[in-house]
Structures are given as C-alpha cells and as structure tokens.
Design brief:
By secondary structure, the protein is α/β, with parallel strands linked by helices. It is built from four helices and four strands, in the order βαβαβαβα.
Length: about 110
C-alpha cells in the first residue's frame, strides 16, 4: 500500500518528452509524496506494456511503476488509497494521434 501517494494513470505509448514534463509538474506540486505511475495495457500499442513500464521507471521523478489493465485498475486504486489520482489516458491518446499525424505528414512530403 502507498497511502498518501500520487498515482498517475496512463498509456505512455510512446513515452514522450511532454509526458516527462507533465510528470515533473505533478511531482513538483507534492514533492514529498511518492509518485506511482500506472502503465495500462492497450491493444494496438506501439510498444509492449513491459517496455513502456521500463521507460517510465527510468524517469527520476517516478518512485514506483505498476502495470495494470482497465479491469483491475479500480481495485488497484482502492488498494493504494492515493491522495491524488491523475488520469492521463485522454492526453496520451491525443499526443499519440498528433505524433502519428506528424510522421504521416513528413513521410508524404
């Protein structure tokens, strides 16, 4: 259990500089509170869940990395008793879409 921690939930597929900046801001808002990142399983992900979790674990502002899927997420959050939960799935989907559009534009130029 990590009572009082901050939990950030997301896909991190791919892990981008913007994700690191956002995690840094979240950490800076509560520097004494442990920061746990939950990396969700996703069909059609660019990288396997384990690889994404290992990349997130390499970020200095993240204390713990947990892998989960949508069906186990709520039970996990209930068990952790976090002080704050930040959901980034929508932001990650938008960033991934923007990255893919950028790559397609570059390839067709």
């Amino acid at each position: 259990m990590l009572p009082g921690c901050t939990v950030v939930v997301g896909d991190f597929d791919p892990l981008l500089a913007e994700d690191a900046r956002e995690l840094g801001h979240i950490r800076a808002a509560a520097p004494l509170r442990p920061l746990a990142a939950v990396v969700l399983a996703r069909d059609g992900a660019l990288l396997p869940q384990r690889a994404r979790a290992e990349l997130v674990a390499g970020l200095r502002m993240v204390d713990y990395v947990i892998t989960a899927d949508d069906t186990s997420l709520q039970a996990l959050l209930d068990a952790l008793h976090p002080a704050l939960v930040v959901r980034l799935e929508a932001a990650h989907a938008a960033r991934k879409r923007q990255l893919m559009e950028h790559v397609h534009r570059r390839q067709s130029s």
